[in-house]
Amino acid sequence: MSVMEVSETLAAGRAAQELRLRRGEFELATQLGHVRTVGGALSGRRRVARGEVERLRRAAGFPDALRERVRTVGTAEGAELMDISPGRFTRLARAGYLVPVRFYLNRYRAVVWLYLAEELRAFASGEPNLLTGRLPRTPTGGSGTTAEGAEEKAGAGEDCRPRNWRGRRIGLLLHESDDRWERAAIVGSVLDPLQLAELVPDPYERASLNRLRPDLAPGRPGSEAGREVVQRLLTADDPDEISWHRSSLTALLADARRDRQAPRPNDTLPEPAGAPEPAPPSAPAPAPEPARTSVAAREAEPVPHGGRGRPLLTRLRIRRGRDREAAAVSRGGGADG
């Protein structure tokens, strides 16, 4: 992107201010395609064209209409919007009829799912038969579940919300990316490391996917227990879901490999032919032991510690020992003679 093109775009923070959106609202607006973005310059972050900002600001009902399109609600408020009980709302969501768009952990580390208010109103107006009476059989398709009764699914403890959220999040990220390796990393991000290693045995390809791995749930909790809860939500656990993502990753990897090779370290240059091999370093020769050093003097000598030569006190002791030995030899020689 040229300098002129950068000057014609806005950073995410500035664009959010111009559109009067909070940070979370702006992120969701870009993910849902309500605010179109372009590839970022240098930093790699996506930016918003000035023309896109002006288009949205000129739209009818700005900014309230735009903010309403990205408004999220929890179970209680969502049930009120649909004019049903919170219990029925939860059963619809667990059975896969209502797909969450976000989640967070409350202070008790319980998962709180959030839904688009706009989607809940559309569902209530389009499916009034699901708002009263016994829930019908779950349709195949969108949620990927088999055609079982929604009441039976809820009673059996099956919860489609994590799986549906993962599928939706991956779909939104794939919509934002045109890079083939990045798209493969998005799909691979919900597979556990063992699954990924099995599908991608090349360590350089795995390193590239891990480097491009997206943050599916920004704002991780600080506690270890909270991080474990979030990690379970980020990892595919249903056999059908795992099979689907494995197949998708295999196809995306084939496209990525045709596009370019994963980054690898530069090969070292070979040695020129006939070049002599360097000789191994020879061990240093041991220092010669002083001649006629007495055992007592040798035992009293401290172990060298990196200085040059022996300390002065040690040399004096050795010299005194030599003098005493020489005197003893001289006295002994005179008596024998």
Detailed description of the structure:
The chain has 337 residues and is mainly alpha-helical. Helices cover 51% and strands 5% of the residues. It has helices at 3-7, 12-18, 23-31, 50-58, 64-69, 75-82, 86-94, 117-126, 150-155, 161-176, 180-188, 193-199, 203-211, 224-234, 239-259, 295-300, 312-336, and strands spanning 9-10, 48-49, 72-73, 102-105, 111-116. The strands form two sheets. Strands 3-5-4 form a three-stranded antiparallel β-sheet. A two-stranded antiparallel ribbon has the order 1-2. Helix 11 (180-188) packs across helix 13 and helix 11 runs antiparallel to helix 15 (239-259). The chain is extended. The model is unreliable at 139-151, 267-310 and 333-337 (pLDDT under 50).
Radius of gyration: 37 Å
Query: In which order are the strands of the major sheet placed?
Result: 3-5-4
Order of helices and strands: HEHHEHHEHHEEHHHHHHHHHH
Task: Give the mean pLDDT.
Answer: 79
Distance between the termini: 106 Å
How many distinct beta strands? 5
**Main pleated-sheet profile:** 3 strands, antiparallel
Helix content: 40-55%
The number of helices is 17
Low-confidence stretches: 139-151, 267-310, 333-337
- What fraction of residues sit in β-strands? under 5%
Structural class, from secondary structure content? mainly alpha
General form = extended
Short description:
The protein is mostly helical. The chain has 17 helices and five strands. Helix content is 51%, strand content 5%.
